[in-house]
Amino acid sequence: MNDPGGAAAVAEMADHAAWVRAAARNNAEWCDAVCRAHGLRGDFGDDAWTSPHRTPPLYPDAVTLTGRLGTSAGAGTAADLLARIDTASPGCSVKDSFACLDLAPAGFEVLFEAQWIHRPAQAPASAPAFPRCLAHPLEWDVITEPGDLSAWAAAWGAEPGDCGPFRPELLTDDATHFLRARPTTATTGTGTATATATATATATATATNILAGAIAILSDGGELIGLSNVFTAPEAATFGIGPRDTWAGCVSAVSARWPGLPVVGYESGADLEAATANGFRAVGPLCVWWRAVRPDADHGDTGVTEGA
After folding, report:
1. How many CA atoms lie within 13 A of 296 on its CB side?
2. Measured in Å, how far apart are the chain's first and last C-alpha atoms?
3. How many CB atoms sit inside 10 A of residue 159's CB?
4. What DSSP assignment string belongs to 162-226?
5. Are 116 and 283 in contact (CB under 8 A)?
6. 244-283 pLDDT, tens per residue?
7. Please, which residues bridge with residue 227 across strands?
8. Which residues in the chain show pLDDT less than 50?
9. Is the distance from CB of 281 to CB of 93 less than 8 angstroms?
10. CB-CB contact of 142 with 179 (8 Å)
């Protein structure tokens, strides 16, 4: 007897797996772009993207591209993967895109876990959404100037005057787009109290200017958008703006600039909740493994990394 429910479950699993693979590849291409901007060369294999040299802070040394790695059905093993990256110096990390590896025997620990997310090109009418009128709407655009990148990085959380891992060379990469959200000059309401509140909020925004942002990465021949580094600056609270507003605005900006494209990424915690409130769905787990000490260090094989 046919089992429609079972067939639907299998189809859904296959669909999720396909989007995990697409999201992992998109993320690997982003990591590769960051490395190229720092003068580092990464390598794409069938099983993973790897960098033979230590990557910039917060970026992994490897991103797996298949869930078969390390299994009898796979073309390679975890040991093969680790042999292609710099495990001899502190800070090595591996993005396990399918949460299927066990790198503990090699002295790694799990740094964090998250969920890959996917939003269809045309989100169904029943998809969750978070539309609401903001007292101080945000205007989204794409930055193109190095000076704007410095301001974006500062709003993201980099030290003043430091772009963090984001080099100006990324602005010339056709696949990479830094999105920023700034308060509009329009005000709402009437009366002295409203005008005073608006003036105060505008003054606050003038100092930081960028209240939210994200990085959009085009891949798959321009048929897929990946979102990375989605953030809501602390100053946004002055305007009553939170992560759900950031994701709503980001989705609208991406849909307007690249209409008809599916969007992927990965998130956890409040940003995962904000993304799913705006039409995304979780399609599969990932984890990042890290080891910050040399394997021959006196205090053992585990430790801390700069990030991943």
Report:
1. 2
2. 48
3. 9
4. --TT--GGGGG-TTEEEEEEEE-S---S-SHHHHHHHHHHHHHHHHH---EEEEEEEETTTTEEE
5. yes
6. 999 999 999 999 999 999 999 999 999 999 999 999 999 9
7. 216
8. 72-74, 125-126, 187-207, 297-308
9. no
10. yes
DSSP 8-state assignment for residue 267: E
Do 305 and 111 touch, CB atoms closer than 8 A?
A: yes
Pairing mode of beta strands 92-96, 281-291: antiparallel
Q: What angle do CA 24, 29, 33 make, to 5 degrees?
A: 145
pLDDT tens-digit readout, 63-99: 999 998 755 444 578 999 999 999 988 889 999 999 9
* Tokens, residue 287: 């984890």
What angle (nearest 5°) sits at the alpha carbon of residue 19, between those of residues 82 and 42?
A: 35
3-state secondary structure of 132: coil
Q: How far apart are CA 43 and CA 233, in angstroms?
A: 34
User: Helices 243-257 and 269-276, interaxial angle, to 10°?
Assistant: 50
Q: Are strands 212-219 and 48-50 parallel, antiparallel or unpaired?
A: unpaired
Task: Give me the residue label for tokens 């720092």.
Answer: 38
Strand order in the sheet with 138-142: 43-44, 48-50, 62-64, 92-96, 281-291, 109-119, 263-267, 224-232, 212-219, 176-183, 138-142
Tokens of 231: 């953030």
